[in-house]
Amino acid sequence: TRRGVAVSDEAIRSGLEQAQIPGRFQVLQPNKAGATLVLDGAHNEDGVQTLVQSLEAEWPGKRFTFVVGTSKNHNPEPVLRLLCPITRRVVATAPAFRPTPAADTASVAQELGLAVTVCEPAGHAIAQAYEQAEAGEVVVVTGSLYTVGETPPQLREG
User: What is the rounded CA–CA span in Å between residue 84 and residue 4?
Assistant: First the structure.
């Protein structure tokens, strides 16, 4: 009201409830095969713990395909370690900007006992994982907002 605009508490609450941040637990419409794509740029332990909690709340008991690409200043080990209990498989990739090499991410995934493949560039890895997903499968793109940003536009449109 300082500048003459009165906004009710209810309007503020409603706005916050409806606010969305692209690339933060952004759930896209299922594709023709019935697979779902989730975009979440989690790149540190706190972000990944929140991602895991959100995935488990939305799809209890499910195991996920993760497309993981991290920036070179973020170690992929904590990300992958936290994802282990809910991982079906990992597609290791790398964002175009300041990447951790996909082979390094894959090596960490293998050390953790995860099924992993390498696919680059990130946009191709995301498209391929999503297009090859089976009905009911959930593909999660994570590790960096740069990786999430490389999601092909046609996939974002459903």
Answer: 52
C-alpha–C-alpha distance, residues 25 and 32, integer Å: 21
Cα separation, 93 vs 122, whole angstroms: 5
pLDDT tens track for 13-44:
766 556 555 566 898 878 888 899 999 999 99
Question: Is residue 119 left, alpha or beta, with left meaning phi > 0 and alpha meaning psi from -120 to 50?
Answer: beta
Q: What order of strands is seen across the sheet that includes strand 116-118?
A: 26-27, 36-39, 138-142, 64-68, 87-92, 116-118
Report the alpha-carbon distance of residue 92 to residue 12 in Å, rounded: 40
Tokens of 127: 């498209």
60-90: pLDDT as tens digits: 999 999 999 999 988 999 999 999 999 999 9
Token readout for 134 is 């089976």
CB 118 within 8 A of CB 128: no
